Amino acid sequence: MIRVENVVKAFGGIHAVDGANLSIETGTITGLIGPNGAGKTTLFNVIAGALPPTSGKVTLEGEDITGLPPHELFHKGLLRTFQIAHEFSSMTVRENLMMVPASQTGETLWNSWFRRGAIRSEEKALAAKADEVLDFLTIDHLADERAGNLSGGQKKLLELGRTMMVDARVVFLDEVGAGVNRTLLNTIGDAIQRLNRERGYTFVVIEHDMDFIARLCDPVIVMAEGKVLAQGTIDEIKANEQVIEAYLGTGLKNKDKLETPA
Fold first, then answer.
1. Do 77 and 171 belong together in one domain?
2. What's residue 112's pLDDT?
């Protein structure tokens, strides 16, 4: 589905991503792990169009999408969430979801004057879809709550809900577990698995919680110093000497530490 070929992203003389090569297959939940500074989020930003690569190529189902801006990738079904949620804090949870679909009838002045009936009909349909999404995510009781009042985990669920308001094909999740309690993290994990199984979403997940990665992800890709170090099942990754050295610098004798949340 997605191919990353020899991607480099340099900031001055520093190569945050240094010749990365990887593949994301359709229908998978792929984990992307690595120590802090490995280049994971920078690579996300390059793939999702937030940063242009210094060199290299990114393709989506054979189409060259290298350097395309996020709004164009959005229309191709490639979406991402952020480690820190980006909600419209003064709007309700339902309204946050209704804002997502592009090219809504009410966005033009002409339509707001002369097509009010069409606008009302569209808003009714969007509200119904938003309520369906909230029910799917088990946060329908928060529909009329201001988004700024949500907990960290609830905001992450709201971000996941935004991807459900459009025809997402592949979703990049950046540290979905950051600042989230274990109960809500399990709810988020359940939603990701259901979207994958029932709606065919492809996910790529950056996460430091190895229990979460082990539960959801196959394959798992490991980055270190801007490069892809290893790829395989979670068991293969845990047994990989290079991976353990990258995380711990102490070899296999401490490999059990890789099995605990970071």
1. yes
2. 58
Q: What is the DSSP letter of 34?
A: -
Spatial separation of the C-alpha atoms in residues 169 and 16, rounded to whole Å: 27
Residue 156 lies in a domain: no
What b/e readout covers 97-133, taking b as 16+ CB neighbours within 10 angstroms? Answer: bbebeeeebeeeeeeeeeeeeebeebeeebeebbeeb
Distance of CA 39 to the CA centre of its chain: 15
Give yes or no: residues 250 and 179 share one domain. yes
Rounded CA separation 159/232 (Å): 28
CA distance 27 to 127: 28
The residue ranges of the chain whose pLDDT is under 50 are 250-255, 257, 261-262
Cβ neighbors of 107 (< 8 A, separation 6 or more) are none
Residue after which a domain boundary falls, among 97, 122, 149: 149
Specify the number of domains making up the chain.
2
The answer to whether residue 154 sits within a structural domain is no
Domain with 130, as residue range(s), is 89-149
Structure tokens belonging to residue 44: 């996300």
User: Could you give the CA distance from residue 191 to residue 98 in angstroms, rounded to a whole number?
Assistant: 20
One-letter identity of residue 27: G
Q: Which of 136, 168, 132, 137 is nearest to 154 (CA)?
A: 137
Read off the pLDDT of residues 89-110 as tens digits, 9 standing for 90 and up.
Answer: 899 999 999 887 666 565 555 5
What confidence score (pLDDT) does residue 84 get? 65
Degrees (nearest 5) of the Cα angle 236, 23, 31? 50
Looking at residue 28, what is its pLDDT?
97
pLDDT digits (tens, 9 = 90+) for 37-71: 899 999 999 999 999 999 999 999 999 999 999 98
Which H helix or E strand runs over 202?
Answer: strand 202-206
Tell me the one-letter amino acid at 126: L
